[in-house]
Amino acid sequence: MQVLKTLALPVLAASLIMTGCANRKPVTDGSNIGTTNLTPGTSVSTDGLSEDAAINAQNLAGASAKGVTEENKAFLAKRVVHFGYDSSELSNVDYQTLQAHAQFLRANANSKIALTGHTDERGTREYNMALGERRAKAVQSYLITSGVNANQLEAVSYGKESPINLGHGEAAWKENRRVELNYEAVPPLLK
After folding, report:
1. Which residue ranges does the record assign to the OmpA-like domain (predicted)?
2. Which residue from 7, 40, 73, 168 has the least number of CB within 10 angstroms?
3. Structure confidence by residue, pLDDT tens digits, 112-159
4. Which residues, in sequence order, are CB contacts of 46 under 8 Å at separation 6+?
5. Is residue 36, in this structure, part of any structural domain at all?
6. Is 15 exposed, middle or buried (0-12, 13-18, 19+ CB in 10 A)?
7. Spatial separation of the C-alpha atoms in residues 135 and 141, rounded to whole Å
8. Report field, pTM of the whole predicted structure over 0.70
9. 56 in a structural domain
10. What confidence tens digit (pLDDT) does each residue in 140-150 have?
């Protein structure tokens, strides 16, 4: 009987603690239930959304038209820059796209962007991770020299791990040699 009491007490204590944690609710005054604050005076309803969906809704609702002009809308809509084989050199066409994004980022200090570098399937995993990083850093460097705050940018390499085209020829490889510009906060409002 003593052994049963010795074993039962810790199990009972643990289940009471776990039950209390499971029933704990965040403290709220009720004024912000189902909303996510964006900027003073604005909010978007996030009732019933997963955490990721709520963040996406917040980003879309927080989109900014500041820094968006009729002249740069087409360039802001472009979120990918491409590279030549085994290269991290930016092309002349990409400078216009990156300049439009730099203008937007300078006008929107709360905007953040992830620059994801990618390669084609040729070469080792290690080599392609390094090449993808050089590509992402080339875009990052251009944006910083164009006046963008470095804290708004994150450079990441996926190497050959996330191809956009699964083919095995030059056309597929050309599409996969890229840096994607992914807005994580306050994307451009292009409407």
Report:
1. 70-187
2. 40
3. 999 999 999 999 999 999 999 999 999 999 999 999 999 999 999 999
4. 34, 35, 36, 53, 54, 57, 58
5. no
6. exposed
7. 10
8. no
9. no
10. 999 999 999 99
